[in-house]
Amino acid sequence: MNSPSQISFLDGTFSLIHIPLSLYPVFLQPILQVLLPNGEFDSGKEIEGLSIDNKHGFLNVSITPVECSVVCHDNWAKKVFEPVIRRLPRDASNTVTISRDGYLILSVISAGMNAGTGVMELTSPLALAGIPIFFITTYYSDFILVPTKDRQTVVQALLCRGFEFSEDESAFVSPTVHVRGGSVSSQPPSTPPPSNVAELQTRTFELLKKRNVVPFIEKDLTVVLCSGKDLEQEQMNHFSSRRPTPTRRLTGNGTNGDHARRSWLDNVDTKLYTSLISVLVLQPRFLSMTLAQEDPPSLLIDKTQLGVFGDSLVGDVEGDLIPIFLDLENLPIEATGIVSGVAGKLVAEMRMAETGDGEQLSYLSTARAGAVILSSEQSIRALEVMEPLLSKE
């Protein structure tokens, strides 16, 4: 039986930033400035977007064959990225986008849930409620971005799906038995949402086909999902492809009880960060790094880069995961159901829920793209499922 999922809102409002790969060198310094918030603590003032011990509440930096994408606290978007955009020539600045509306981030702890089924189970109630989302799988947890304006609809969708408030009402806890229902009564969007999961999947692939979205795999690109070492817990257990139970606190404000603010260097594995900087400077073909306050750093990296990190990583570094990319540039950012529709179709058609193969399915949303991440064998089968649905007759 699956362990109950716990879903909670992270503190703060976040921005989603799209950077064309051609401008990545221009934005490398801002990315590093956000990643390593050094030199800003002399005043002793707290920095919005960081905890009292100078940890990011949430930060994702992803470089893919489609784009560079950053999810960061609004404070960083305004104070670090916007000034750089304003200094660009107009033609170049118009190609960089910061989401007009803010996003909230739902943190999902579901250690016992099959990863592939989890993507579908967690995103389908939101998609059926007409809520556009972004989904990021990490080594320990899943994170869902939802528009700030849709917070109440999200709450209602989860409650109608059978989720319940935790004892202190700081999070939602899934029921022992998943409740499968239809759409949620809410302020209707311009296009009525699908009434069930099957219709959601059909609509998703119809939209992708209409917008000429063709799934593709980068030649010779194999990635691994891994983690930096947990310095606080010193977890040196044997890791497998199954995501371990996170050692994060389920509730609380994330403070460490210290009155004095500590440098970010007190909280990180300097070898991991030095390696990460080395890879970022060279503009990797693929990298997705996620920092969350309660988890060690999580990385999806090109397997050829493993040697740079040495023994600073833990996880299934012998894995052979293949990303299937979907360039979503021609879709409106408010398009709904993409994650749930694609993942759900693959889980159903490839019978992942029955065979247990869904354990290795991950999903990465970036500003203008999506990536379904599977084992090398599963990726071939997934393309066989997707290509006929998206090919022009």
Shape: globular
Number of strands: 17
Round the Cα radius of gyration to an integer and report it: 20 Å
β-sheet strand percentage: 15-25%
Average pLDDT confidence is 82
- pLDDT under 50 segments (min length 5)? 177-190, 235-241, 249-259
Structural class: alpha+beta
Distance between the termini: 43 Å
Query: Order of SSEs, N→C?
Result: EEHEEHHEEHEEHEEHEHEEHEEHHEEH
Main beta-sheet strand count, sense and barrel state: 8 strands, antiparallel
Proportion in helices:
25-40%
Within the largest sheet, what's the order of strands? 5-2-4-3-12-13-11-14
Question: What do these coordinates show?
Answer:
By secondary structure, the chain is of the alpha+beta class. 29% of the residues lie in helices and 22% in strands. It has eleven helices and 17 strands. The protein has helices spanning 24-35, 74-87, 90-93, 115-128, 151-160, 197-210, 270-281, 306-309, 338-349, 352-355, 376-390, and strands at residues 6-9, 14-19, 58-63, 68-73, 97-98, 103-109, 134-137, 142-147, 164-165, 172-173, 223-228, 287-292, 295-302, 313-315, 321-327, 362-365, 369-375. The strands form three sheets. The chain has an eight-stranded antiparallel β-sheet. Strands 7-8-6-1-10-9 form a six-stranded antiparallel β-sheet, with helices on one face. β9 (164-165) and β10 (172-173) form a beta hairpin. The longest helix has 15 residues, at 376-390. It is globular. The N and C termini lie far apart (43 Å).
